[in-house]
Amino acid sequence: MSSATLDAERQRLGTEEPLLRVVEVVKHFHAGVIGSVKAVDGVSFDIRPGETVGLVGESGCGKSTLGRLITQLIPATSGQVVFDGVDITKLRGEKLRQQRKQLQMIFQDPFASLDPRMTVGDIIAEPLENFGLVTGRQKDARVQELLRVVGLNPYFNNRYPHEFSGGQRQRIGIARSLGLNPKLIVCDEPVSALDVSIQAQIINLLEDLQREFKLTYIFIAHDLSVVRHISNRVMVMYLGKIVEISPSQELYDSQEHPYTKALLSAIPVPNPRVESQRRLIELSGEIPSPLNPPSGCRFHTRCPIAKVPTPCADTEPPLEQKAPGRFAACHFSERVRTV
Amino acid sequence: MPGETLGLVGESGCGKSVTALSILGLVQRPGRIVGGKILFKGEDLVRMPVDELRDIRGRDIAMIFQDPLSSLNPVLKVGFQIDEAMQAHDKIPKDQIERRGVDLLKEVRVPDAARRANDYPHQFSGGMRQRAMIAMGLSNRPEILIADEPTTALDVTVQAQILELLRDLNEATGTSIMLITHNLGVVAGLCKRVIVMYAGEIVEQGPVEQIFESPQHPYTWSLLRSIPRIDADRRERLRSIEGLPPDLIQLPPGCKFSPRCPYRIERCFRDDPQLKEVAPSQEAACWVTMKRAYAEMGAATITDTRPGAASGVRPPKGVAAKVVDARTIDAAEGPVR
């Protein structure tokens, strides 16, 4: 992408009011006498209308929990989730329900997320009926329209989920989420369970739908290549914290956080020549337990450039702007290059 | 070949794992090997008596699986399970088994190996369990190690470590590795030779550089273009492969990929192509091959990847009904707008 179009994209996304503001959100899960799991531990970011923001990290880093906090499927321990100007963590009952219409979710497992005893038509119509938006005849027409939009045969509305393949089921899940004309869709690992050739179909579909319906996406996945492809910006999480936010196009060329760099270095590239040149930055040890995260910077126990104890083990680095549009939480961003 | 690293790629249901299980005679009923030979050092494993095959299994040809947790016994210590693999065969002298168990754990880079040998599988992380499985697989110094999606369940950072481990072990011990995966990046990093499977058949094989640089089968070519790459311009639209892999109960006539292929010709619906040489030591099973697709069908600039899009060939009458069945209708017809 040329720098002119990149600037245009920045400008388009930069001038509008954020659609979603997440402010210092915390989610701790109680784990009995041993304490609490700090799944999400003080996370803040903005998302603008029409943007796709990717969320990556290793398993257990809190990315799915964050997705569920944004849709308020689970209540936050503290912090705010401001959607369209309203703090939805404060809403309860009917008010939250109405607000949630705008906020839909697509799940990872297309087998577990569709009720096997409901027809596809009923599955897609359920949210519509729930909000009293369709009745009788209208229902079939709307369901068929939605099936057509996601590239399925509209006359399949009387079939059951088991008659469909994984990719087709994921299309059904997408049709269900589109029914209420949402503004924001949280996609939690939507292509991880699919075969490679089907992944591309779903990614292209999500891109087309975004253009057509002016959707905003939060795209959660562990596959950084997929996330980078679909997102305007990528957020990298480690142990319940965001460690870096970067425009996707720039992410591969330079990184402001050593963890991002290590993560990128681990991704296999389908090109034997590139692969033979690739240098893996091996992180020592394993991810510490979120029950008892390390002091200071949570990454210091595995970081190749950490200065221990001061400042890395005693002071937590704030997420701050390191370059235009690029944020990182690291005391030594300028040294990431040397890793 | 001895010491070789071979990659077996394809999508789920294309027969990769069944191929591997057949080698070890582990195909479950009602599945059985109905024909063909599997030659290991000149001996046919298919016709070999069960007890002879049992001697080879785990001793000469070992296997590691995708999910290390369900492959380990949860109530036995990890060290014991590795020792058990050696006790089953008499390749390693009995008095050396316990020491070798710990040494193997060290070799696969399990920190504090002597103590960890006394741990149970649940005390190991996913990556560590896979290391333990590799240690078990290598315990009898096998000549071939079959790794079936060994890193699919692991995080990318752990995946990279396991692959590096396999690469080093291959160089150090000369054990041949057959890696089964759907991830082309993993193959590019570890393997010297690659076999691409589709619907139970080999569609292309050859040296890894050649296959990635100039794939000749449209399936291989399409697969390489359908995955997002971390080092590419992210604004380029993915060239998806439309449709679904065929139902293995009702295979299409002719070439199995013809219902999804943008470059198909009439003959593809009639005759099933056999593997033939398309370049030195590279074989593909295709009537068209990408050489012709580039020269005659504009493959270099193709944007429409729908079936038959580049060649303009529709399925002949009669075949159509089988190709566009309920399962494939959405993609074979393209999104209905």
Q: Superfamily at the CATH H level of the largest domain in chain B?
A: P-loop containing nucleotide triphosphate hydrolases
The quaternary structure here is heterodimer
Main interface by residue count:
A-B, 55 and 53 residues
Order of helices and strands of chain A: HEEEHEEHEHHHEHEHEEHHHEE
Q: H/E element string of chain B? A: EHEEHEHHHHHEHEHEEHHEEHHH
Helix/strand-derived class of chain A?
alpha/beta
Query: Number of helical segments of chain A?
Result: 11
**Strand fraction band of chain B?**
5-15%
The largest β sheet of chain B comes out as: 8 strands, mixed
CATH topology of the largest domain in chain B: Rossmann fold
Could you explain how this protein is built, in words?
By secondary structure, chain A is α/β, with parallel strands linked by helices. Chain A has a single domain, classed as P-loop containing nucleotide triphosphate hydrolases (Rossmann fold, 3-Layer(aba) Sandwich), CATH 3.40.50. Helices cover about 30% and strands about 20% of the residues of chain A. Chain A has helices at about 5-15, 65-70, 95-100, 120-130, 135-150, 165-180, 195-215, 225-230, 250, 260-265, 270-275; strands at about 20-30, 35-45, 50-55, 80-85, 85, 105, 185-190, 215-220, 235-240, 240-245, 320-325, 325-330. Chain A has an eight-stranded mixed beta sheet with strand order 6-7-8-3-9-10-12-11, with helices on both faces. In chain A, helix 5 crosses helix 6 (about 165-180) and helix 6 (about 165-180) packs parallel to helix 7 (about 195-215). The radius of gyration of chain A is 21 Å and the shape is globular. Chain B is of the alpha/beta class and about 325 residues long. Chain B has two domains: about 5-190, 3-Layer(aba) Sandwich (Rossmann fold); about 215-330, no CATH class. Helices cover about 35% and strands about 15% of the residues of chain B. Chain B contains 14 helices and ten strands. Chain B has helices spanning about 15-25, 50-55, 70, 80-85, 95-105, 115, 125-140, 155-175, 185-190, 210-215, 220-225, 290-295, 320-325, 330, and strands at about 5-10, 40, 45, 60-65, 145-150, 175-180, 195-200, 200-205, 275-280, 280-285. An eight-stranded mixed beta sheet of chain B has the order 4-5-6-1-7-8-10-9, with helices on both faces. In chain B, strands 2-3 form a two-stranded antiparallel ribbon. In chain B, helix 4 crosses helix 5 (about 95-105) and helix 5 packs across helix 7. The longest helix of chain B has 18 residues, at about 155-175. The radius of gyration of chain B is 22 Å and the shape is elongated. At the A-B interface, helix 6, helix 7, helix 8, helix 10 and helix 11 of A face helix 8, helix 9, helix 10, helix 11 and helix 14 of B.
